[in-house]
Design brief:
Structural class: mainly alpha
Order of helices and strands: HHHHHHHHHHHH
Oligomer: single chain
Helix content: over 70%
Strand content: under 5%
Distance between the termini: 19 Å
Largest sheet: none
Shape: globular
Number of helices: 12
Length: 265
């Protein structure tokens, strides 16, 4: 039997017991790095370079966090600490970079179709404006968009189209993120695997389990709301809690898969 969300959360809190300080310290470092990136002036080339470097560092630090939570969940808390942040730097950093690029690649088809749909909707919307005035606006000769006059049925159909497009994109993004949600954990668990192999394993593990993971994530929503009320301070507790629970979820998937495999022999 798979463990319930309550059991996964209890296991996560048990694993974190006595290790909250390094967990919160690592999350605080991640927060400070994100703050530096958010506060950069992106009008300068140096700021853009800094943002790119920070993005790359975050990819590797995220893998380090997963390694840290793995040690806690697997009963190796004595060896877990802030030094785990360096896990990806010392263990195939290109592998985790490839994992990030693969995530972008899988999101790309839906993203392209989404923006094509938005572009088409924009053309239909602007077709109800005066063409001459619209061209003046596009060339920068006037500072205001021309008034748009569309028939009611066309405007309603266009609104429905955009809403359906947004919902479809959200569902696609959710399906992609849930299907390949376990790749980083798999790469930490099996560092000799290739990225493509990790994606294949994640897809196999998550087959029929996407809603289970979605329900687990949604169960943290009250904590997220509470953390927001505390001006973000609560996230220093919530993020380690979620990170460890996600590792427990992965270990549960692997345990049930191995159990099913042994029963079929």
């Amino acid at each position: 039997m798979y463990r319930t969300n309550a059991e996964l959360k209890t296991a996560a809190k048990s694993s974190l017991r006595g290790h909250w300080f390094p967990a919160i310290t690592m999350q605080l470092i991640m927060f400070l790095i994100a703050s530096i990136s958010a506060g950069a002036d992106y009008n300068s080339n140096s700021a853009l370079s800094l943002s790119l470097i920070i993005s790359l560092v975050n990819i590797w630090l995220d893998a380090g966090l997963v390694s840290f939570y793995f040690k806690l969940s697997c009963g190796q808390g004595g060896n877990a600490g802030v030094a785990d942040f360096l896990y990806a730097f010392r263990n195939h950093p290109i592998l985790f970079l490839g994992n990030y690029l693969m995530q972008i690649l899988y999101m790309l088809p839906g993203t392209i179709l989404f923006f094509i749909g938005i572009f088409i909707a924009a053309i239909f919307y602007l077709s109800g404006s005066d063409v001459d005035t619209l061209m003046l606006y596009l060339y920068g000769d006037i500072d205001y968009l021309p008034e748009v006059n569309l028939p009611g049925t066309v405007a309603a159909a266009l609104a429905v189209f955009v809403i359906v497009l947004i919902i479809a994109y959200i569902l696609y993004a959710a399906w992609v993120s849930l299907t390949w949600s376990q790749t980083t954990r798999i790469l930490v668990d099996f560092p000799d695997l290739k990225v493509t192999q990790a994606y294949k394993r994640s897809s196999q593990l998550m087959k029929g389990k996407r809603l289970r993971l979605l329900r687990l994530q949604i169960s943290f929503l009250p904590w997220a709301l509470l953390s927001t009320i505390t001006l973000g301070i609560g996230f220093l507790y919530l993020l380690p809690y979620m990170g460890c629970a996600n590792v427990e979820f992965y270990l549960d998937l692997v345990r049930m898969r191995d159990s099913a495999a042994s029963n079929t022999r």
